[in-house]
Amino acid sequence: MITTLAIMALGAIVLGAALGYASIRFRVEGDPLVEKIEAILPQTQCGQCGYPGCKPYAAAISSGEADINLCPPGGLDGVRKLADLLGREVKPLEAEEKPKQVAIIDERTCIGCTLCIQACPVDAIVGAAKQMHTIIEPLCTGCELCVKPCPVECITMQPITENLDNWKWKYPVIEIKRAA
C-alpha cells in the first residue's frame, strides 16, 4: 500500500512538472524606494557621486547614507525631484553642474590602446586593439570616465546642444497607459 502511494505521489510530481505546476519560481524584487530613486537619477554610471553607479547611489540615498545633492549629471533638477520624492529639503549641488555632453575621439590621434573601452560603463566606445576607436554618440552618457585613461589625450567632451532628437533628456517622458 505504501509503495502504491509513493508511486502515485511520484506520478503526480512528474505530471505536475510536465505541466509546469511543480516548478515554483521565486521573484526577488528590489526595494521599491531604491527603484524610484534610481529612476530619477540620470543613469550615467559615472561615479561622480562617490558611488560606482546610479543604483548603489540610490541605495545609499534610500538608507540615509548619502545625501541627495551629489550627482552633477542630474543637476539641481535631479536634486529637486529627489527632495520631492523623499520629502527632504532641496540643497545646492555639491559639485558644479555640467551641461549634457558627449565624448569625441580624435580618430587621427587614437592609437587603439582600448583603455577607453575598458573604462566606459555603458559600452559606448567601439574599436579593436591597435585600431582606431569611435564613440556611439546615442549611447554615450557623458560620464568622462574615458578621458583620463587615454594615454594620447585624444578624447574630449563636447556639450550637446538641445534639438528635437534629445529634448527628452531635459524633460521627463510621460507614459500614458490605456485601459484594456
TrEMBL record:
Residues 101-130, 132-160 form the 4Fe-4S ferredoxin-type domain. Keywords: 4Fe-4S, Cell inner membrane, Cell membrane, Electron transport, Iron, Iron-sulfur, Membrane, Metal-binding, Repeat, Translocase, Transport. Belongs to the 4Fe4S bacterial-type ferredoxin family. RnfB subfamily. Its EC number is 7.-.-.-. This is Ion-translocating oxidoreductase complex subunit B. Binds 3 [4Fe-4S] clusters. Its cofactor is [4Fe-4S] cluster. The lineage of its organism: Bacteria, Pseudomonadati, Pseudomonadota, Betaproteobacteria, Candidatus Accumulibacter. [4Fe-4S] cluster 3 binds at residues 120, 140, 143, 146. It holds the Pfam family Fer4_21. It is found in: Cell inner membrane. [4Fe-4S] cluster 2 binds at residues 110, 113, 116, 150. GO terms for biological process: electron transport chain. Its main location: membrane. Residues 29-88 form the 4Fe-4S domain. Part of a membrane-bound complex that couples electron transfer with translocation of ions across the membrane. It is an enzyme of class 7 (translocase). Residues 1-23 are annotated as: Hydrophobic. One of its GO terms (molecular function) is metal ion binding. [4Fe-4S] cluster 1 binds at residues 46, 49, 54, 71. SUPFAM superfamilies: 4Fe-4S ferredoxins. It comes from the Bacteria.
